[in-house]
Amino acid sequence: MTRQPPLPDLIVEPIVRNALMEDLGSAGDVTTRTVIPADTRYAARLNARAEGRVSGMQAARLAFSLIDPDLAIDTIVPDGAPCTPGDTLMTISGRAASILAAERVALNLAGRMSGIATLTAAHVARAQGTATRITCTRKTTPGLRILEKQAVLHGGGFNHRHNLSDAILIKDNHIAAAGGIRPVLEATRAARSHMIRVEIEVDSLAQLEEVLATGGAEVVLLDNMDTDTLARAVTMARGKVVTEASGNMTLARIAEVAATGVDYISIGALTHSAGTLDLGLDF
Amino acid sequence: MTRQPPLPDLIVEPIVRNALMEDLGSAGDVTTRTVIPADTRYAARLNARAEGRVSGMQAARLAFSLIDPDLAIDTIVPDGAPCTPGDTLMTISGRAASILAAERVALNLAGRMSGIATLTAAHVARAQGTATRITCTRKTTPGLRILEKQAVLHGGGFNHRHNLSDAILIKDNHIAAAGGIRPVLEATRAARSHMIRVEIEVDSLAQLEEVLATGGAEVVLLDNMDTDTLARAVTMARGKVVTEASGNMTLARIAEVAATGVDYISIGALTHSAGTLDLGLDF
Amino acid sequence: MTRQPPLPDLIVEPIVRNALMEDLGSAGDVTTRTVIPADTRYAARLNARAEGRVSGMQAARLAFSLIDPDLAIDTIVPDGAPCTPGDTLMTISGRAASILAAERVALNLAGRMSGIATLTAAHVARAQGTATRITCTRKTTPGLRILEKQAVLHGGGFNHRHNLSDAILIKDNHIAAAGGIRPVLEATRAARSHMIRVEIEVDSLAQLEEVLATGGAEVVLLDNMDTDTLARAVTMARGKVVTEASGNMTLARIAEVAATGVDYISIGALTHSAGTLDLGLDF
Amino acid sequence: MTRQPPLPDLIVEPIVRNALMEDLGSAGDVTTRTVIPADTRYAARLNARAEGRVSGMQAARLAFSLIDPDLAIDTIVPDGAPCTPGDTLMTISGRAASILAAERVALNLAGRMSGIATLTAAHVARAQGTATRITCTRKTTPGLRILEKQAVLHGGGFNHRHNLSDAILIKDNHIAAAGGIRPVLEATRAARSHMIRVEIEVDSLAQLEEVLATGGAEVVLLDNMDTDTLARAVTMARGKVVTEASGNMTLARIAEVAATGVDYISIGALTHSAGTLDLGLDF
Amino acid sequence: MTRQPPLPDLIVEPIVRNALMEDLGSAGDVTTRTVIPADTRYAARLNARAEGRVSGMQAARLAFSLIDPDLAIDTIVPDGAPCTPGDTLMTISGRAASILAAERVALNLAGRMSGIATLTAAHVARAQGTATRITCTRKTTPGLRILEKQAVLHGGGFNHRHNLSDAILIKDNHIAAAGGIRPVLEATRAARSHMIRVEIEVDSLAQLEEVLATGGAEVVLLDNMDTDTLARAVTMARGKVVTEASGNMTLARIAEVAATGVDYISIGALTHSAGTLDLGLDF
Amino acid sequence: MTRQPPLPDLIVEPIVRNALMEDLGSAGDVTTRTVIPADTRYAARLNARAEGRVSGMQAARLAFSLIDPDLAIDTIVPDGAPCTPGDTLMTISGRAASILAAERVALNLAGRMSGIATLTAAHVARAQGTATRITCTRKTTPGLRILEKQAVLHGGGFNHRHNLSDAILIKDNHIAAAGGIRPVLEATRAARSHMIRVEIEVDSLAQLEEVLATGGAEVVLLDNMDTDTLARAVTMARGKVVTEASGNMTLARIAEVAATGVDYISIGALTHSAGTLDLGLDF
């Protein structure tokens, strides 16, 4: 289930346009132009061939409509909904040459985004019954971040920061360069905007202690801790800062980590290793 | 081992620039700008944390140099070379703020491309000792195709067509729309350029027979055939057309399929399901 | 005094390039090309003709270097520093035709940004001796927001959110559409990312009371309140949420408003009505 | 009253698109997407809250329609018309989320352009009853020049050259570099196109004398002259060249300067210091 | 007669948009905006004033519709069809100001492309009755290649490779750098994709002999041969490789060269020296 | 001989970059990458193979340097200078792969621009000994106008307006729509900027008479007149307006037309039908 209305097409369209231009190459779809009569018309269905969570339907729709504004496109299964093999997600009808020219881009985008939504949903399911939320990272595909962040939402997850300018995340290198936790948090307090969140990475309970004593961060990233340490960190932080567990958060560990009461588990694999959901276009 | 010189930076730079702008967001790296003194200097190493085949070093270099032309960057392990955990692939030194701002984009690009090169190399290894070549498809990440196609080369594979305009590939839908194999090949012969290859998909030996009898294609795509059928198809086609096996070509099947003598095995998973190779930046 | 290192040129360059192309028009600087001998060389100084706070030097430098990479450019007074009439802010030497072609764009950008920094500094001065900070809004010049936000920093102010995606700011229309303060905060809590700040606008102490009782916002925007009401609101909010005063915040009121102990005063006029600081290029 | 039909949307759209992308940021309007139900519909009015001259309606319309082509938009008061507080300039109805996402960009553009038109109209009013025309300069906001030049027209003013390539304007630096007024005008005559105007700046009656004696310029810029000198210059130039007064042309001086019979008064402040006209969106 | 359906507008539109922006300049069509009343409506006809072959109608249509989506445009004579003086190729009706603003770009594009189609058709006519095909080269106008390659198709010709990446063409410099014909072909065989054609240039029968003996090329470019040598080369190559004659292929020689049985004659002049077909817009 | 310094690279670079991307296609120069060893170095000369006037050297230089900033490039014969067969115009040395990849774009641009300069010079030569100047029109190649206008200058010609916004040119359609010569000139006078030229087309001496009587135009376009009528028109207009002869101005007529004393002869063929000057790259 999606919790958000779609993005304005204005944001998604340049990404899809770029993908189409990349695939069309210099001269468009020479195969189709060579062998398909101009007046051949198709009614096609974009079908799921595997079970999962749907995402990328907005991008797929734009792939077809940018190639040919006269195609009739009907989204049956919206972004964020589940699918099972054989479900028709979208119907497209109109000039055959147009449908064939847009097919691969539409499938590449929808398959990849549905893969991310599906993997996210699998992680979310492991945390069910707890208040722990699943979140992504910045380990996204260059050029497709907004679509992949949306796919995480479609899978029931939450978004971490979108880019380097919309939140402060102080990592070990920053702490080292600034001379320790206290100085780094004081420098941050002096310069930060009140409209931006501050998160700081800690590797040990001693570091967490120092962060809590210093103040100035709203979120702590509990990095690469074993589950016991994590549980103690969560207890220390409760009511003071939001907690986020990170590092080696495999699907198998989610239930156990969520049981510690941590607020968020962040997982790079949601976007960097999701694979694609098997989708196909049938005529 | 790479068989090709690098692409001109002119081609790769817009992709990396786009990725940096996406990650910098409206205001650049606010964390670094807030906490890292402007004159802090780092010497960083881009290290492999897993065994594999390296790709994306050109893109990583550009990520650093576009953020800060004054960084000193030295590529130690070139695209196409193997790596083992702990290998330093690249060294970067200069302003700490610059290195940190470019880090994620460099890692996202190099990790993804090295993942593809590594997966390709694994498939190539299974075909070793035969003349069969491993090739990719158009199931690439939208916006990154040229880098992913390069990564396949770096893994020892070969490229299929780059886009819809640089080769003709006649699939089942085209055959159906044109009224059969003979008419589709005749239409193609009448209109094709002499500088463009023609490949046609066949699902059965009967279809292959008809293609060979009609002429007009240089490559046949043997789609979704079991290994026995494939072997017979290869025998039929030998000396007449190039053969390419496709559909359900898992890593486990490569050796067996290569043993049929087929010229090429094409595998969408090389690019759509490769995951990333674990790389990290150490200071 | 500036608290931040400069933005990467990568972010500023496209804005300056666009401005240069706009001013060069189809055929470049025809006057200069017509009457200035190609080998005439100038040494020019960018001088302040008024007292103020300097901003836009990075953009001015890029204007000159994009027109002619061979110009020698030396920034004497950096962004964020004060200036008095007659101060030389930058020296530029090289081909006269290049300096003249870039002059107007450099002055337009630096004059405008210095105007914003100067107006910001005037407001900051009125709040001196208190902990109240001066902040801007989204009422910036379309296309120049990042430079104007930087200029506010250079004037000693702080930045509000950069765009619609990097913080949540719930205004009266949002409250009305969602059915009231409690429902809007609950909807926000359910969907918000942990890396994004939530601010809510209140027009009365009763609304503030409800916000504090409901929780879920880190910042309250105290809109269009008289100074007494503001003082009571600040007292109510202390230790619970960050407070921001907004609406009719003229320069004359800043000292009085800051005396209430409010954390931030936000002022659209900093960017939408700043005018330009008088700068000139002397040869 | 506007004297010109609107620009083609083709020219204005990229500017508005750029402004929207800047304001939407990476992820669009997260506030609205979080709290406004997708099916909420609004009827909004863009109202004037101050007296003035309207400009920027074309840009405002495009801001709404680019975000959502399904919005119904009706321009009530066209560019170039006067407004009084409370006047509804435009009505917009449709998805609430779309209207809210475009609101700030529409207001920023229309407020700024109406501010310029209003300030221009104030200057034009001071010259009423004379043949003197008010004109702008190149001191415009980088990236918005065409809109600002239009706003000057909407205020009843005239445009000076649009960019460095559409007219020749010989200033003191050019004269110095070329070796004086006679050589600079001779060099110009030899190289100029017949389709481009030549204007030359003079600071004294002696310089004007030399320009008139040499010929080759159609317009003289009478720079920084007191009113008496200006009057004598106008008398000398009458019937020979068009005259333009420039430098320190404050609103208070316009009537007196216009009384000299000068053809044009050019005023940088029209665009660089106009402020915004107070406009608001009411639901 | 055209053998291909039109390109997707997606490919052609950016070229036309760029051309319109170039011609509109900073401020649009000031003449029309100054003198044509906004409600004047025209019905215009795009007429041929010379005999020839039509191309560029898609681009012309886009020029009008991008300027004004409300224009009614009807293409009477499609790309690839012949025309005689007086033929109406397209009708356009709607706002006069829109039609006049797009006129020059539409004519520049359609005139140039029809010129190429017409020159191509003249060459094709000389080869009539033979199986020899006329093909273009990469000597196209920078930025307009796809339109010019289409124009060659509209004239009855065939396309050579579109760009440097969609076919391998080994010229004398490549052969020299690689150490001869055998090594260059072996290097190619080792690295080439199976989806890309290989052509090699030969200047003598001895070189052709070596190419045929070595194998690995599908096409030979017979460069600058006299007709007798060409005839012998064609005989040698028959049934083994496709032959292409190149170099000094004037219109006068086409019939004689075609009589040798060569498969293709490639002619740079088709695109680099075609001139324009005289077209005009009548009201 | 050129009368103008070169354009800033800032203006020319995007055109050359676009041309290179068009020619490189998806994957760069696959031939060179396949067969040229990475360390092969060349010293190449760009040679004239015909007599003419050189233009496009700036663009050619950028083609090489954009592909490879490490190439050493030396321009021997500058834009605007004459050349004879065998002249070396430019030397380029460095990586062979880079030189070969940029070769075609450099030649296409330089050949085309030198063709225009050469044709212009031929027309200029016919007017030698008179004061008549040769000028181009807006019948330029879409996307290359600025380069072609420069080429006209390099050939000794003059530029007409660059685009629709930098001068007013009132043609027959405008006159008809506005209700005649007097009303069109009055409407123009009321609305025109003082920095823009006004030209009006006349087809007869009666029309010229009316234009001269009405005033308000600085240039008259004498369209499609025979030489006698032209001579009388020039006599009528002398000392009042600049005269431009247009329509059917073939090379053969130039001397005769120039003898009438007309100020300018405008010739669309300079840019739309110039062909290319034969240039080649030798190694």
Describe this structure in words.
The structure is a homohexamer of 283-residue chains. Chain A has 283 residues and is an alpha/beta fold. Chain A folds into 2 domains: 9-118 and 275-282, Aldehyde Oxidoreductase, domain 3, CATH 3.90.1170.20; 125-272, TIM Barrel. Chain A is 43% helix and 18% strand. The first copy, chain A, contains 11 helices and 12 strands. Chain A has helices at residues 9-24, 30-35, 57-67, 96-126, 145-154, 172-178, 181-191, 205-214, 227-237, 254-258, 269-272; strands spanning 41-48, 52-53, 72-75, 82-83, 88-95, 133-135, 168-170, 198-202, 219-223, 242-246, 264-266, 279-282. Chain A has a 6-stranded parallel β-sheet with strand order 6-11-10-9-8-7. Chain A has a 4-stranded antiparallel β-sheet with strand order 3-5-1-12, with helices on one face. In chain A, strands 2-4 form a two-stranded antiparallel ribbon. In chain A, 60% of the residues are buried. The mean pLDDT of chain A is 95. Chains in contact: A-B, A-C, A-D, A-E, A-F, B-C, B-D, B-E, B-F, C-D, C-E, C-F, D-E, D-F, E-F. Chain A binds chain C through residues 3-4, 133, 135, 158-162, 165-167, 169, 190-191, 193-197, 199, 218-219, 242, 244, 263-264, and chain C through 3-4, 133, 135, 158-162, 165-167, 169, 190-191, 193-197, 199, 218-219, 242, 244, 263-264.
The top-level CATH class of the largest domain in chain A is Alpha Beta
Series of secondary-structure elements of chain A, N-terminal to C-terminal: HHEEHEEEHEHEHHEHEHEHEHE
CATH superfamily of the largest domain in chain A: Aldolase class I
Largest interface: A-B, 64 and 64 residues
Q: How big a fraction of the residues of chain A is strand?
A: 15-25%
* Beta strands of chain A, count: 12
Largest sheet of chain A: 6 strands, parallel
CATH topology of the largest domain in chain A: TIM Barrel
> What is the strand arrangement across the widest sheet of chain A?
6-11-10-9-8-7
User: What number is the mean pLDDT of chain A?
Assistant: 95
Quote the distance from N terminus to C terminus of chain A.
28 Å
Oligomeric state of shown chains: homohexamer
Q: Considering DSSP H and I runs of 4 or more, what fraction of the residues of chain A is helical? A: 40-55%
Structural class of chain A: alpha/beta
CA gyration radius of chain A, whole angstroms: 22 Å
Shape of chain A: elongated
